[in-house]
Design goal:
Length: 282
């Protein structure tokens, strides 16, 4: 076993669970909200300093995109300033800090997608809070990886306020139905949680330069295209009706084109290949 001590925050979530599996050959400390409230700066500094891990991985986040519109202070604290507390304590103990961000930091007006160095401009409270989190990392430490993802899917988490991923939601909603309406907009790249966890370990173990990376699977799709592939792989005979996003009343604006272009690492496998693996586990 590797003697390096790795602290995983948000350990019960979809990504956190996979990180625990991937880093099982290390000395892992897995904390969720009941173990540490990352919005409490004093507790963050005290508890993490005492633990003194070599690596702090933050997979905790407020990810209710529409709920964020009515909870600006809460979402900015959890996704923004609390990330700064973690980065600050990581620097104070000379630990590597790993944090996850999102395609929603971009406005979605670039049809060609976004590189790691593209200029961010969020159009929602959620996106703004995640951008704030990135800024807090840069302000508080220089030993970091920020990994951006989009449309995370995989085994459902068990932590506080977890929600079903799109794949499981589609399969559940389609039960007993002949057709289902799905928005045929918002071009982005699905991200398979186990693949993202493996990418994280690759960054850590191969001395990749610190900085910002894109961790989505290769390729892109609209929500409608994503759903069609889900039902095809699950052998479900259901009509997927393409509709406009205007048909669903949603508080937050979404970027229409937010494909995360990976220009700094080896390409991830295609989202279709990753989806097939996940469907076969169900």
């Amino acid at each position: 076993m590797n003697n390096e001590k790795i602290l995983i925050l948000g350990a019960k979530g979809m990504l956190g669970q996979q990180l625990k599996v991937i880093f099982s050959d290390y000395q892992v400390i897995a904390w969720d909200f009941e173990d540490l409230d990352i919005t409490n700066k004093n507790d963050v500094l005290t508890k993490i300093s005492y633990l003194s891990p070599n690596v702090v991985i933050n997979a905790a986040a407020y990810n209710n995109v529409d709920g964020a519109e009515d909870n600006q202070d809460t979402v900015n604290l959890l996704n923004g300033y609390a990330v700064g507390y973690l980065a600050e304590v990581a620097k104070s103990i000379n630990a590597l800090f790993i944090h996850y961000s999102t395609d929603y930091i971009f406005d979605g007006e670039n049809k060609d997608g976004y590189r790691e160095d593209s200029k961010p401009r969020s159009i929602s409270m959620y996106g703004g809070s995640k951008l704030l989190g990135e800024e807090e990392v840069l302000k508080n430490t220089d030993k970091y990886y920020i990994i951006r993802l989009s449309r995370l899917f995989g085994k459902m988490g068990e932590g506080q306020n977890v929600k079903k991923g799109f794949v499981d939601l589609m399969l559940e909603l389609s039960d007993g139905k002949d057709n289902i309406d799905v928005i045929n907009e918002e071009l982005s790249a699905p991200t398979y949680a186990p693949d993202l966890a493996k990418l994280t370990k690759n960054l850590l173990e191969n001395n990749i330069p610190y900085g910002i990376y894109h961790g989505a699977n290769d390729g892109s799709c609209t929500w409608h295209e994503f759903a069609c592939e889900i039902f095809k792989l699950a052998n479900k005979d259901i009509e997927v009706v393409p509709i406009s996003g205007e048909k669903f009343k949603r508080k937050a604006r979404r970027p229409q084109y937010s494909v995360l272009l990976n220009t700094k690492l080896l390409k991830q496998r295609s989202w279709q290949e990753a989806l097939k693996e996940y469907i076969n586990t169900k």
